[in-house]
Amino acid sequence: MKHLRSINIVIIILFPLILNAQKYTINGFVQDAASGEKLIGASVFDSNSGLGTTSNEYGFYSLTLTAGQIDFGVSYVGYTSYIESIELNEDMQIIVDLDPSIELEEVIVTTNRPRDIVKSSQMSTITLSPKQIKALPVFLGEADVFKALQLMPGVQSGTEGTSGMYVRGGGPDQNLILLDGVSIYNADHLFGFFSVFNPDAISNVTLTKGGFPARYGGRLSSVVDIRLKEGNMKEFSGSGSIGIISSRILLEGPIVKDKTSFLISARRTYLDILVRPVIRAVNNANGDNGTAGYYFYDANLKINHKFSNKDRIFLSAYSGRDKVTMRNEYDYINDDSIYTEQSDYGLYWGNVTSVLRWNHIYGNKFFSNVSLIYSNFKFDVFENFYSYVNDRKVSAYEFEYYSGIEDLGGIIDFDYYPNPNHSIKFGGKYLYHNFKPGVTAFSSTYETDSINMEFGNEIVNSSEFYIYAEDNIKIGKRLLVNLGLHYSAFLVQDEFYNSLQPRISSRFLITDNLSIKAAFTRMEQYIHLLTNSTIGLPTDIWLPTTKDIPPQESYQTAIGAAYNLNDEWSITIEGFYKTMSNLIEYKEGASFFEIGEDWENKVEIGDGLSYGAEFLVRRDAGKLTGWIGYTLAKTDRFFENQNDGEPFPYTYDRRHDISIVAMYKFSDRTDISATWVYGTGKALTLGVARYASFQEGGAHPFYYDYWREVEYYNGKNGFREPAYHRLDVALNRHKKKDWGEQTWSFGLYNAYNHLNPFYLYFGHENNSRVLKQVSIFPIIPSVSYAFNF
Amino acid sequence: MKKSGIYILTFILFIILLNSACEKTIEIDIDEISPMIVLNGLIEADSSVVISLTRTRHILDNAEISTLTSAFVELSDNQGNSAILTIDGSNKYVTESFSVEPGTEYIITASAEGYYDVEAVCIIPEAVAIIRIDTATVYNEWNEPLISMGIVFQDDPSTDNYYQLFMMSKSYYTEWDIVERLDTLYIDPVTDTVITAIVLDTIITRIPFYSDLYFESEDLIIEEEDNRGGVIFSDQLIQGKEYILKGNIYTYFSRGSQDTTTIYVKLHSISKDYYEYVSSLEKHYYSKNDPFATPVVVHSNIQDGLGIFGGRSTSIDSIKIAPQPYEDDIWEIY
């Protein structure tokens, strides 16, 4: 009897193992049948048991199921679903090639399927495809990732026309912008009117506003994870467009079919080329040889090599630059000598990033990703003067001011799928930062004498690293919890900062079509962006946490619900409450170009609070697709030495923010789209009174009764600009050609020509003082021609 | 023409017709705030006390800013002395019967019907002597001559000091005046008649004139330039040290002068409130003209009002520049 009892106990203990012994794992990749491009977030499931998983950022999946007959299925929006009955009696690897959908042919724009939104534990997340981005009406014919994201609730745009993002009351520095996993510090072209990402090269964009999984860290407000295409493994293909201000091209194809592929894309503006002859002609008429110009370009290169179904490497590089230049040259004759004066002025800024990545599958449940990353952002202003006498250089004056940040580091991530109830991710990242917070180099040469000087803020080196672990846990049939822990540390100037950040987000399924969600996250940010302008200028400077400037920190709580009306319509509602501390701002009137003082003495440290509710109704299938988003929110800042120590509205505090996006497909040849946005006016400080300044008499008698006018402000950001609203429309005409497809796109930005405020100032009209509004974007038509083959 | 060509032409026309005049007047409710007294004054040892009293106006009020002429203004010190200021012909409140001394605290009060009473306090700082002025002639990149100056002074280590430096030149210009004069040509010896004629005399007058000079300096201690070409700075970086403040001045003012030009260097020790006022005032104007900059509040030490009540003491030194004929770029400083 005693022995029997012992056997029973052993059986009970070993029961799970016995059960485990009856399970097998299917792993593999989900990819586009035509191009071999990996599909991120595809649903992989057994329709018999209802168990399933999703493919990760590299298209990998692993699903462990009980042995026996299974109906193995894979689905991805816009593709024909894959279903196959399998007798599961061993571990197996299945590479699933999905064909572009025929059953959803009428769908021109697809996003997260409603069912995914309800069932995912992740909240506050938006995924966009390049197809979506390109289908939206665009400014000057340039499709833009950030402008598409600005149409989502919780994401606000900054100054009109710019691509700056302000997520749930956070600043533009609080967005972690990742391009293939590498941070991009300045994502703006043309002073923020366009972002630096070429939509043709993008595979997928995911924005996370809250409920951050533990794998992300280093910023307070959002993560914009942009994945580039890997390059077509099957055949050579390309796409491109010709627009009003720029053109772009993308070429991709196999180097060795199904083994090695490449992708190369480039975009450049040509305003400088078009305008340069005009400027030169005008200057020549004035006797000058001067010229001026502006351009930006960006280029991506990606090479992808598959050693086997378990090993793959990627090399990805990006380079982008904006440059403004002015050049002037003139000659004069004196005493039979020819004197030449030559001057160059300009500024440029840009990013270079590169990543070398190795994906490896250990066994059939373990996926690893190891990356070596490099990034460099530099902003540079230069001014050079040269004098020549009879072509002999007699003097030179060269001035340069630059700032930037350079990163070098590595990332290691593991995905482990022990069973369908757990999906575990863990890993770490190390970054060595080299901050150059504003350095001035000056050299002057006269004949044989020369001076060389370099001064400015001290270059700061620092190390940042984090480790994390998270598990997506299914508890019963209704509860799904993503539980994680993120530990980060920052070493700078012998000061060691560290932070343990709990992350939790959960979903409770009330019915198959209705779930409620909640999330709590703590985030820590070790870098700051110092800006004294309300538009995104490259002069904004990235600065590290230092001994005297602590890291930024936030706590965010969010709750929400997701509801599917049917397979086409879904509704999500979310509320959030976010506190932010150790935010920095310039002290009033301080400027970075003042070199007399260390930057740390020019900034103030304060706090922020943001809370609100976001509503999103969307239709993801059918001839008519789109969404209606509404945000009701309030954001304040608190700085001890500003506004008499009282809280004041953040500049981008926007009580109401509405966006309506609609896309309608008439036929295979014609589709239209329209967006309408409305937002409460920007908060601003306006003078309420004016008075005379003290003016001491100078040397000239007329100075004695001269005074200047001072404006008196009654509270910071106490006024609102007029509300912002705008309608954009676009018409796309597609045509199949022997060589591929062409698309003509016609657009109207600000279709009903509403003059939105760019800035306000006090002026005069009919001998009265009035408040004037300057608007820079009236109705603007655009046309572009796109092709792909 | 193909349809696509027509589309392109239509859009090009659209672009050409694009209206870029995008400015309009708008209305925003700007609450009326109660008008406040604006008191401005800078008092100095051995100088008359002059106070300006005006009022605030609503930001959209187009009326001129005018003096409050019926106010009661009183100045007192911490020694128990006081004086009532009276309004003079230029609508300033003045007193000449009050002696202002360095190191003394002064209180000014002003009241006028319909306004809150205002009050402000300031202490006159001690003057800091200019030890010497070093000069040299230098040339800029266009080979123009400049006077390089090094103003040497000793900062007082026992206090926080704030400074304002001004330079001013005294040159002369020449006025020619033609006057008629009846002159005797000769006396006829026969008739004894005096023969006269009107002759023209030229009277040359040398009239002094003064110019504020722009002190061009990249000295790291300088906080701000003011609108008269001077600079302000504090002793934050030079606490208690002997310091040479370096900079250049252009010399256009004396070109062609037939007389010696005097350059006066005034080193003012200023009260902290006045320093913050001038510093914030200049930043206020920079930010006011930049629609994207954060507005800067101008510092005020006037309780229940606006403006500045500051104090200062001054040290003066000078250098002289020899007469400079035209087309001569050689400068002699002595």
Core attributes:
heterodimer; A: 789 residues; mainly beta; Immunoglobulin-like; Maltoporin, Chain A; 2 domains; 22-stranded antiparallel beta barrel; 5-stranded mixed β-sheet; 5 helices; 49 strands; B: 334 residues; 13-stranded mixed β-sheet; 4-stranded antiparallel β-sheet; 2 helices; 9% helix; disordered N terminus
Summarize it.
By secondary structure, chain A is mainly beta.
User: What's the assembly state of these chains?
Assistant: heterodimer
Which two chains touch over the largest interface?
A-B, 75 and 72 residues
How many individual domains of chain A? 2
CATH class of the largest domain in chain A: Mainly Beta
Structural class of chain B: mainly beta
Number of strands of chain A: 49
Low-confidence stretches of chain B at least 5 residues in length (pLDDT < 50)? 1-21
Structural class of chain A: mainly beta
Number of helices of chain A: 5
Query: Could you report the average pLDDT of chain A, rounded to the nearest whole number?
Result: 85
Distance between the amino and carboxyl termini of chain B: 83 Å
Strand content of chain A: over 45%
CATH class of the domain at 130-171 and 211-294 and 313-321 in chain B: Mainly Beta
* The CATH topology of the domain at 130-171 and 211-294 and 313-321 in chain B: Immunoglobulin-like
Shape of chain A: globular
**Main sheet of chain B?**
13 strands, mixed
